[in-house]
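Example 9 (inverse folding). The structure is encoded as follows.
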């Protein structure tokens, strides 16, 4: 039986070799001397030579064993050759080195694995690049950000795959003090922020962050500020224009003219007030805070009030009917539901020419309960329907303004409904009329 890798752990001092060699040589010399005393010089020399030859053969044999063992693959963990004396010492030493190296390798592999796992868990894309920009390693997010495949693209220059001129110029320019923001080509439309950090002598770490969502929000914020400023500026210009006219013509203008101008200015001030009110409502809804006060709302009574308000706005120009087929109450916030429901009803009045019909319905249908506003007004072309609930989106800006619209009504409706687990469905046909339906799950009904 040979020694296994674990068996031989004994470490003997280096002087052991010297002692062993001296002992062997002394034994051979003493043996040759004894032979010389008894048989003469020639037999003594012959004994000395034969003994040396045998010792040489023993060493050569062990040397072969060692070489053969060293050549077996490391992962086969072949047992050490059997030996004694000096060679036992040598094999033990070789084995110790081998197991130390193997333990070090295991530690290194474990450290590398931990590093890989940490890199994969990073919230950024990571690319390790050589000085010639070839991809040495890339984590999962890096693959997603740049449309790479590690198995396929490892070793390829990243600039052959990500060809955006800005990116290529940045990488080759070598000035990495500022990050680069660019729109990646694949996958399309992703905005990435890229940092490059050179490390060791010939490597670079490229970190990428997907800022598409942030950019989109920033663009929305800019649009919103621009829209609000625009919406405020128009009535303000009108108000100041009328006021200037009145001030300049205070001496010459008739009282009726002054009343007329001030009336128009007050109308515009009212418009600004409505806009600010809608903006405040929307911002309160958008904070995402839960509904403050929920109660069973008697939708039948609520719709009665809404019908009356719609009639006031219509001024008798429309026929407005109410059909309430369920008396179950809806769990929600009375004020919020009123503002959403009245918005839909008033819109129907505003976008239906005189003589038109408007019907308000509250009914339960299977698993949903719905509030429906139908009109036979101007209707909406299909391409506008998906965008109607965006803030300030209007099909006909002029008509919306003429009828006192702020462009925020349906955005408010959508928010209120989603706070009540509801959905808004819109069916419409230009020239024939529209149907706006607010659907709620029946679990919000209180018997
Ligand atoms: P606005 O204050 O302009 O009415 P809304 O958000 O309430 O803003 O509505 C957005 C747009 O949807 C309106 O400008 C209008 O073009 C369209 N719209 C809403 N309700 C109706 C309806 N019942 N019939 C036709 N168009 C409508």
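The amino acid assigned to each position is listed next.
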């Amino acid at each position: 039986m040979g020694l296994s890798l674990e068996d031989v752990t004994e470490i003997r001092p280096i002087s052991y070799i010297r002692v062993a060699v001296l002992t062997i040589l002394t034994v051979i010399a003493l043996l040759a001397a004894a032979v010389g005393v008894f048989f003469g010089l020639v037999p003594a020399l012959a004994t000395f030579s034969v003994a040396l030859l045998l010792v040489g053969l023993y060493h050569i044999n062990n040397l072969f064993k060692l070489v053969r063992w060293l050549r077996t693959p490391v992962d086969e963990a072949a047992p050490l050759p059997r030996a004694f004396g000096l060679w036992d010492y040598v094999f033990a030493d070789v084995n110790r080195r081998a197991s130390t190296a193997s333990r070090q390798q295991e530690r290194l592999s474990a450290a590398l694995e931990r590093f890989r796992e940490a890199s994969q868990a990073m919230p950024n894309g990571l690319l390790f690049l050589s000085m010639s920009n070839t991809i040495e390693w890339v984590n999962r997010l890096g693959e997603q950000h740049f449309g790479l495949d590690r198995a396929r693209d490892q070793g390829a220059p990243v600039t052959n795959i990500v060809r955006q001129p800005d990116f290529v110029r940045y990488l080759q320019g070598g000035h990495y003090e500022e990050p680069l923001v660019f729109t990646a080509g694949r996958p399309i439309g992703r905005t990435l922020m890229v940092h490059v950090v050179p490390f060791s002598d010939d490597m670079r770490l490229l970190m990428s962050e997907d800022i598409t969502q942030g950019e989109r929000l920033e663009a929305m914020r800019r649009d919103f500020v621009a829209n609000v400023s625009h919406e405020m500026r128009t009535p303000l210009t009108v108000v100041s224009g009328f006021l200037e006219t009145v001030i300049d013509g205070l001496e010459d203008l008739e009282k009726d003219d002054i009343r007329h101008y001030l009336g128009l200015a007050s109308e515009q001030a009212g418009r600004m007030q409505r806009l600010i009110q809608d903006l405040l409502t929307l911002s309160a809804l958008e904070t995402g805070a839960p509904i403050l006060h929920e109660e069973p709302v008697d939708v039948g009574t609520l719709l009665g009030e809404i019908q009356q308000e719609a009639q006031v706005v219509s001024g008798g120009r429309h026929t407005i009917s109410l059909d309430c087929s369920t008396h179950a109450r809806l769990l929600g916030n009375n004020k919020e539901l009123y503002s959403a429901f009245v918005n839909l009803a008033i819109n129907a009045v505003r976008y239906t020419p005189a003589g038109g019909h408007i019907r308000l319905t509250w009914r339960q249908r299977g698993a949903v309960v719905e509030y429906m506003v139908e009109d036979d007004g101007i209707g909406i072309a299909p391409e506008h329907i998906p965008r109607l609930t965006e803030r300030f989106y209007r099909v006909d800006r002029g008509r919306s303004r003429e009828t006192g619209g702020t462009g925020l009504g349906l955005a408010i409706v959508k928010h209120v409904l989603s706070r009540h687990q509801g959905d808004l469905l819109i069916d419409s046909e230009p020239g024939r009329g529209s149907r706006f339906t607010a659907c709620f799950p029946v679990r919000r009904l209180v018997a």
